Amino acid sequence: MVRLTGIIVSSRTQNTRRGRMGVIVLDDGTAQLELTVFAELYDRKRALLREDTLVFVTGKARYDEFRERLGVSADDVMDLAEARARAAARLRIEVDGAPDLTRFRDALAPFRVSNGNLAGGCRVVVSYCNRAGSAELLLSEAWRVRADEVLIEELRQHPRVRAAGVSYV
User: Do both 91 and 141 map to the same domain?
Assistant: First the structure.
């Protein structure tokens, strides 16, 4: 298994017995690598597989003896937003004093993940401080959220929020 990140420099399709597949050349600034995206994945990710697009790929490395070079068969292809959301471990919100909890809840609510899909979101940590002290509050599993840039920007606009961001550890 390999994980790759790069810019698509060329993209073409090829017809096979199983349908259309994509043959993508990915450039990470140090080298170029050919990526094969088979029919089912290609159909789901077709809009993403175009030139000058940054992608994150998981797949299987293979050596093509005929061409005498390394290639990758893609298992998944993601854009930046999807890769960030999948890798996010925590959404950290730093607040000075008591925020407006209703407004805070309303900001988080549209980004909550369903209870059946907890793997799709990250936990929320509120780092609270005031003149008397500080505390780290880990919200319950029910408040898992998608780590979306729109949510982070909205949280940063709240008057008492000093910082908001995602941690990946």
Answer: yes
What span, in angstroms and rounded, lies between the C-alpha atoms of 74 and 6?
Answer: 13
Which of 22, 49, 78 represents a domain boundary (last residue)?
78
Structural tokens at position 7: 């810019």
pLDDT of residue 134: 94
Calpha distance 136→21 (Å, rounded):
48
Cα–Cα distance between 89 and 78 in angstroms, integer? 18
C-alpha to C-alpha distance for 22 and 39, rounded to whole angstroms: 8
Q: Does residue 116 carry a pLDDT above 80?
A: no
Tokens 């298994």 — which residue? 1
Q: If phi over 0 gives left and psi between -120 and 50 gives alpha, with beta otherwise, what is residue 46?
A: alpha
Domain boundaries, position 7: 2-78
Mode of pairing for the β-strands spanning 19-27 and 123-130: unpaired
Q: Which residue, among 86, 89, 81, has the nearest Cα to 55 in the 3D structure?
A: 81
The model carries a pTM of: 0.68
Task: Tell me which of 37, 57, 78 is where a domain ends.
Answer: 78
